[in-house]
């Protein structure tokens, strides 16, 4: 097999880190160069696009895409990790009836741009050290706020009262990169007046890639070399939601040398293709030179 290039749409199983999942597919495809496009916690299953070979150059673009999740909020207990795997830190029985209308009202208030503080058990770095490393040592540090966007938040089930005094309901959220759905679940609980945690989560869509396009590790293990190659999505298809322009041969040479070009299209970034349909580079508006654009990401070069 020559260098494997393309994007694998993996359905990451529960009970495995995203890093471990990538290590597994690297072994299956016999390749060293791979990177995923947005970590899923071990307890979370779902769509995990993995880039191989030259496609690793577009990891940041696929990671920046919006994501859709379905999950469950449980009211009545909060945990150290904001999900079901953590230690319980506060409990309060749900005594009043929580209606679907109340939940939907909270959802509408959380739709749009919101501010989040990453959980202590997360991979965000503060002073060169990941927050979960501080958390494991029992140290709490000041965490940077971040702005995220909730494009849509809908109630997907009835509000269920359990015998232990807890209440749960399922939701679907379409959100920007960097959104902590665990933290969103805690916020939903706070707005309803109770400690809460995220008791279940699945990522159903990542950018333009959906659940029904994915393959599992077990399926991959049974495939022939040709079948494996057939699972890969091309760089071109992966970037198909970007505005595109096809260039002539002389411009193709300039692009492959990383040249600054006249602005070919008003949108930025733009994917530039050669006559053969290969994506050569993503270009963006030049910040200092009016009417010009410069490489944002080179995908094919002359050297």
UniProtKB/TrEMBL annotation:
For the keyword Secreted, the answer is no
Q: Superkingdom, according to UniProt?
A: Bacteria
Instruction: Output the InterPro entries linked to this UniProt entry.
Output: PsdUridine_synth_N, tRNA_psdUridine_synth_TruB, TruB_C
Question: Which EC number applies?
Answer: 5.4.99.25
Looking at its record, which EC class is this enzyme? Answer: isomerase
Where the record annotates domain Pseudouridine synthase II N-terminal, the positions are 26-181
Q: Which UniProt keywords apply?
A: Isomerase, tRNA processing
Catalyses: uridine(55) in tRNA = pseudouridine(55) in tRNA
tRNA processing recorded as keyword:
yes
Where do the catalytic residues lie?
41
tRNA pseudouridylate synthase B C-terminal domain boundaries: 182-238
Recorded GO terms, molecular function?
tRNA pseudouridine(55) synthase activity
Q: Which PANTHER family match?
A: PSEUDOURIDYLATE SYNTHASE TRUB1, TRNA-PSEUDOURIDINE SYNTHASE
What is the role of this chain? Responsible for synthesis of pseudouridine from uracil-55 in the psi GC loop of transfer RNAs.
Q: Which family does it belong to?
A: Belongs to the pseudouridine synthase TruB family. Type 1 subfamily.
Q: Which NCBIfam families match?
A: TruB
Q: What is this protein called?
A: tRNA pseudouridine synthase B
